TrEMBL record:
Lineage, opening ranks: Bacteria, Bacillati, Actinomycetota, Actinomycetes, Streptosporangiales
SMART domains referenced in this protein's UniProt entry, alphabetically: ParB
Keyword Acetylation belongs to the record: no
Species: Sphaerisporangium krabiense
Signal sequence extent: none
Entry protein name: ParB family chromosome partitioning protein
Pfam families (UniProt xref): HTH_ParB, ParB_C, ParB_N
InterPro entries hit by this protein: Chromosome_partition/occlusion (IPR050336), HTH_ParB/Spo0J (IPR041468), ParB/RepB/Spo0J (IPR004437), ParB/Sulfiredoxin_sf (IPR036086), ParB_dimer_C (IPR057240), ParB_N (IPR003115)
Length: 315
């Protein structure tokens, strides 16, 4: 059964460009109804729009220079998408009649196909000017309020797909290069920690403090403590700096019991037959014991009579 894309987590670049309704024009290009610019919101991006596209309606770009893809890396990406959703839309162009050709994001497209997703978020591009689309998206980053994980995904896609640089991003969005770098590092957190950041249960400051830990299990454990105990960012930083952030202790494994001694097992079997009840014979390091089970007082008296006829229980 095909899986549905996990939604509600983040929009990435999908938050920075308009959505339909789309009108298919002759020649297979889409147009977007003109919208008045909003002073405090993203501006319409010329020559592009955002929509969910059926995965089966997308064909591979025959001019894609990359022919070999690491299947293990695709599987890892699919696992990430299953866990935290797809934050970075692919980029396609319309071929008309509901068909599209992939321009950027083949790894994401392949991973989505591997998961069996029905639809995938995509930027549908009409213009061939990559620089114009890149610059418009960078400009809209200043205008749209994204959560920290969405912001990180937008930065990563602008760097990877649109050839932006850290300097361009920093200058155009009014942020420092260190902010760009630290925000991008949020994408290195374990999936369930990313979910907490996207949901707002832990802040970007908490997440940056967690990134100083190298053990993903320790990151997850401390993230759980942040939520459960309401820890401040400063407290988390102190816990990390003092080396007190560790993964939850693993449950103590039970020591495997030694195999029973065949001689003692044979003796226990003989005694069980003789007294007609269950008998256990154990031998420890310093001493041993024989355990004879009985069902009632009458049964106990019967067993004692068999062991020592003169020592029967008196009335």
């Amino acid at each position: 059964m095909a899986q549905q894309r996990r939604g509600g987590l983040g929009k990435g670049l999908g938050a920075l460009i308009p959505t339909g309704p789309i009108v298919e024009a002759a020649g297979g290009t889409g147009t977007v109804p003109e919208a008045a610019p909003v002073d405090d919101g993203p501006k319409p991006v010329a020559g592009a729009y955002f929509m969910e596209i059926p995965v089966k309606s997308i064909t591979r770009n025959p001019r894609q220079p990359r022919e070999i893809f690491d299947e293990d890396a695709i599987t890892e990406l699919a696992d990430s998408i299953r866990e935290v959703g797809l934050l970075q839309p692919i980029v396609v162009r319309s071929l008309g009649e509901g068909n599209y050709e992939l321009i950027m994001g083949e790894r994401r497209w392949r991973a989505s196909k591997l998961l069996g997703l029905d639809e995938i978020p995509a930027i549908v591009r009409n213009t061939q000017d990559d620089a114009m689309l890149r610059d418009a998206l960078i400009e809209n980053l200043q205008r749209e309020q994204l959560n920290a994980l969405e912001e990180a995904a937008a930065y990563r896609q602008l760097l990877d797909d649109f050839g932006a640089t850290h300097e361009q991003l920093a200058q155009r969005v009014g942020r420092s290069r260190s902010h760009i770098t630290n925000t991008l590092r949020l994408l290195n957190l374990p999936g369930n920690v990313q979910l907490r950041v996207a949901a707002g249960t832990i802040s970007a400051g908490h997440a940056r403090a967690l990134l100083t830990l190298s053990d993903p299990a320790a990151q997850e454990h401390l993230a759980s403590r942040i939520v459960a105990e309401g820890l401040s960012v400063r407290t988390v930083e102190e816990i990390v700096s003092m080396g007190e952030a560790t993964a939850a202790p693993a449950p103590r494994a039970r020591r495997a019991k030694d195999a029973p001694d065949p001689t003692l097992a044979h003796l226990a079997h003989r005694l069980s037959d003789h007294f007609e009840t269950r008998v256990k014979v154990d031998l420890g390091r310093r001493k041993g014991r024989i355990v004879v089970e009985f069902a009632s007082m009458d049964d106990l008296e019967r067993i004692i009579s068999a062991m020592a006829p003169g020592a029967a229980l008196e009335d």
